[in-house]
Design brief:
By secondary structure, this protein is α/β, with parallel strands linked by helices. It has two domains: about 250 residues, Aldehyde Dehydrogenase, Chain A, domain 1 (3-Layer(aba) Sandwich), CATH 3.40.605; about 190 residues, 3-Layer(aba) Sandwich (Aldehyde Dehydrogenase, Chain A, domain 2), CATH 3.40.309.10. It has a seven-stranded mixed beta sheet with strand order 12-13-14-11-10-16-17, with helices on both faces. Strands 7-6-5-8-9-19 form a six-stranded mixed beta sheet, sandwiched between helices. The structure holds NADP nicotinamide-adenine-dinucleotide phosphate (NAP).
Length: about 450
């Protein structure tokens, strides 16, 4: 894919970028390695000050960064502002808590002194997606840099200006050059970069094929990888639930980021007795959503990021319908304007529809009717993915069952799945492995060194 900015709301090609050649990549890796050898000796105080400065810049210039995201990948401007603010938050969170997360841990043994020390690994490669072009990067960079690592970013090819802006933020904040660099390269270069001796580990957020490819390349070199991949999160609604609240949250949870979020609720699993009522409420809320110019403040849903994503989601909807799904609302691309617009869509669908196990990366909700909680849990788990899950019930026994029996990296009861710097984030099964955020996130890219003194 060419490295370029193409406005998804208009289809206009705005800017193209030359990818780095091999000697430029080599020079940047040298710079990163030299920076690491100095930076690893800096104190937490220094790193915290720099990271808080990053947060200041994000907050001061949030309008500029939000506009860049909206321009390159079509998220609504208001959601882009919220994304920049969340990036500042994760920087401040790790600036404050990293010293405690990485403090030596003393353990009583037969030694006169034994403890665990957390030390940085070196250059960490981050391969990132376009859907949250700032958040995905900062949730990696804040802990990685606080731990004393240096970061190199291979961002998605459709958000190069976001990638360059992020590099610039770290530079202006005072991080020495080489501590955080953007590499404008295509996906084909990733295997060579992870194979380089100077690069010690990698994290990838994106699709399964991309994750599998990076993990294979890293595996050959015995290098650690964290993978945050796709999801088809269930949203379970049981009889005792507050249906109005559930339908309101269901709408936000499905439409987050124009429907292009790994943790968007994608499969709505509702018990038969309340299914008609829930469907009606969901329909009303979907009908009220305004699709249009992502820069406009009253827009709820902007364009999909690329024509391919639009095409893929429509192919999935057609395949679902060909196999018996019914369209309650939506179901066809909006063709009376330029840009990659798809309307809010609800499909009532049966679990044996071959498309039902796929991830829908756009504003399409699949609605399933089930007999009871047993069937709901069974269907929720009947997926290759295991990222998040949201479940709605006021019955405590049911809540306990859902918490323990749902196979996913997170379960939210009576709330929407979301990431929060204070809580670990990640998946199981084909949604990936490893965790980001919280104390678990900062421990992914460190040498957990055991020290034993006689
Ligand atoms: P993608 O195609 O996998 O792209 C993600 C990144 O991987 C891009 O930088 C891309 O570069 C690169 N890439 C693609 N193929 C690669 C390969 N073979 N080897 C190495 N790198 C490669 O993902 P997407 O389709 O844009 O993003 C959507 C997917 O990401 C969805 O499945 C979504 O659920 C998942 N996601 C997961 C999370 C999470 O936290 N679990 C968060 C957000 C998104 P190019 O752009 O140059 O191709």
């Amino acid at each position: 894919m060419a490295i370029a900015t193409i406005n998804p709301a208009t289809g206009e090609l705005l800017k193209t970028f030359e990818p780095l050649n091999d000697s430029e990549i080599g020079a940047k890796l040298n710079l990163a390695q030299a920076a690491f050898l100095k930076y690893r000796n800096t104190s937490f105080e220094v790193r915290s000050r720099l990271l808080n400065k990053v947060a200041d810049i994000l907050e001061e210039d949030k309008d500029k960064f939000a506009k860049l995201m909206t321009l390159e990948m079509g998220k609504t401007y208001k959601s882009a502002i919220a994304e920049v603010e969340k990036c500042a938050l994760v920087c401040r969170y790790y600036a404050e808590h990293a010293p405690q997360f990485l403090a030596d841990v003393y353990v009583d043994t037969d030694a006169s002194q034994s403890f665990v020390r957390y030390q940085p690994l070196g250059i960490i490669l981050a391969v990132m997606p376009w859907n949250f072009p700032f958040w995905q990067v900062f949730r990696f960079a804040a802990p990685a840099l606080m731990a004393g690592n240096v970061g190199i970013l291979k961002h998605a090819s459709n958000v190069p200006q976001c990638a360059l802006a992020i590099e610039e933020i770290f530079r202006i904040a005072g991080f020495e050059s080489g501590i955080f660099q953007t590499f404008l390269v295509g996906a084909a270069k990733v295997a060579d970069i992870i194979a380089d001796d100077r690069v010690k580990a990698a994290t990838l957020t994106g699709s399964e094929p991309a994750g599998a490819s990076l993990a294979a390349a890293a595996g050959k070199q015995i290098k650690k990888v964290v993978l945050e991949l796709g999801g088809s999160d269930p949203f379970i609604v049981l009889e005792s639930a507050d249906l109005e609240a559930a339908a309101t949250t269901a709408t936000s949870a499905r439409m987050l980021n124009n429907g292009q979020s790994c943790i968007a609720a994608k499969r709505f699993i509702v018990t038969q007795t309340i299914a008609d009522k829930f469907e009606k409420l969901l329909l009303e809320k979907f009908q009220a959503l305004k699709v249009g110019d992502p820069m406009s403040n009253d827009t709820d849903i902007g364009p999909l990021a690329t024509p391919n994503i639009l095409n893929d989601i429509h192919e999935q909807v057609k395949a679902a319908v060909d196999n018996g799904a019914k369209v309650v609302i939506g179901g066809n691309p909006i063709n009376n304007q330029p840009g990659n617009f798809y309307p809010p869509t609800i499909l009532t669908i049966s679990p044996d529809n071959p498309v039902a196990k796929e991830e829908f990366f756009g504003p399409v909700a699949m609605l399933f009717r089930v007999k009871d909680i047993d069937a709901a849990i069974e269907l929720a788990n009947d997926t290759p993915f295991g990222l998040g899950a949201s479940a709605w019930t006021t019955d405590e026994t049911e809540q306990k069952r859902l918490i323990s029996e749902i196979e996913a990296g997170s379960v939210f009861i009576n709330g929407m799945v979301k990431s929060d710097p204070r809580l670990p984030f990640g998946g199981i099964k084909r949604s990936g492995y490893g965790r980001e955020l919280s104390i678990q996130g900062i421990h992914e890219f460190v040498n957990v060194k055991t020290v034993w003194v006689k």
